[in-house]
Amino acid sequence: MEEKTVFDKKSAEEMDEISKTLFAPIYPVIADNIIKTSGIKEGVCIDLGSGQGSLAISIAKKTDLFVYAYDFSGDAIEIAQRNIKNCNLSSQIKTVEGDVHNILFENCFADLIVSRGSMFFWDKPNLAFKEINRILKPGGMAYVGGGFGNKELRDDIVNKMIIKDPKWEEKYKRNMSEEKRKIFAEASSGLQNSKTEIINDDSGFWIVIKKNTLMTM
Ligand code: SAM
């Protein structure tokens, strides 16, 4: 039986620490990959399961997007608020506490939805992807998944993480397993008015959802 991850103050602080050290170089690279794939640089962006806010911050620094950093952990949100303030980005990034299974935004709200390292913890990925599709604007795109941005960063970080925490390798392999990829690919398929593509390469495993410009009811 898979152990359920607890998102408490300690885990939020640990994620914050690692995001500022070993993981620090991945966020600007992932943000560049997202911007290149989507071509979206203005409008509204939501980072789902944003944790300490690192991806939201990188996206905000590189674009004119107004970014919502969205997470169900009050502890993570508190840390994100501090990090956003320290980067002088409080006027471009707003934090919102909420669950991906019942997203607190109206239909067709977001031009771009991003999420890194969170979907592996969602209880009902089907429901979460339906919600993502619901709040995407026609012509908008979602880029959701996990990874380290490129081969060089992945290899370096995976090697160092295995030394730091031997239990981490097992979790990483499970999250990136063929079985898990199938579950996420299935959960994000057949979304109304959208096309889904899978990126499965050195940058990680990412689900890309593109909402049609013209919607049918
Ligand atoms: N995205 C950040 C990053 O890549 O550094 C943080 C990743 S952290 C491993 C996973 C985050 O997803 C946690 O902050 C957790 O609170 C959040 N999360 C997990 N399940 C969630 C859910 N159902 N709704 C909202 N946030 C969720």
TrEMBL record:
<keyword id="KW-0949">S-adenosyl-L-methionine</keyword>
<keyword id="KW-0808">Transferase</keyword>
<dbReference type="GO" id="GO:0032259">
    <property type="term" value="P:methylation"/>
</dbReference>
<keyword id="KW-0489">Methyltransferase</keyword>
<dbReference type="InterPro" id="IPR026669">
    <property type="entry name" value="Arsenite_MeTrfase-like"/>
</dbReference>
<dbReference type="Pfam" id="PF08241">
    <property type="entry name" value="Methyltransf_11"/>
</dbReference>
<dbReference type="InterPro" id="IPR013216">
    <property type="entry name" value="Methyltransf_11"/>
</dbReference>
<feature type="domain" description="Methyltransferase type 11">
    <location>
        <begin position="47"/>
        <end position="143"/>
    </location>
</feature>
<dbReference type="GO" id="GO:0008757">
    <property type="term" value="F:S-adenosylmethionine-dependent methyltransferase activity"/>
</dbReference>
<protein>
    <submittedName>
        <fullName>Class I SAM-dependent methyltransferase</fullName>
    </submittedName>
</protein>
<dbReference type="InterPro" id="IPR029063">
    <property type="entry name" value="SAM-dependent_MTases_sf"/>
</dbReference>
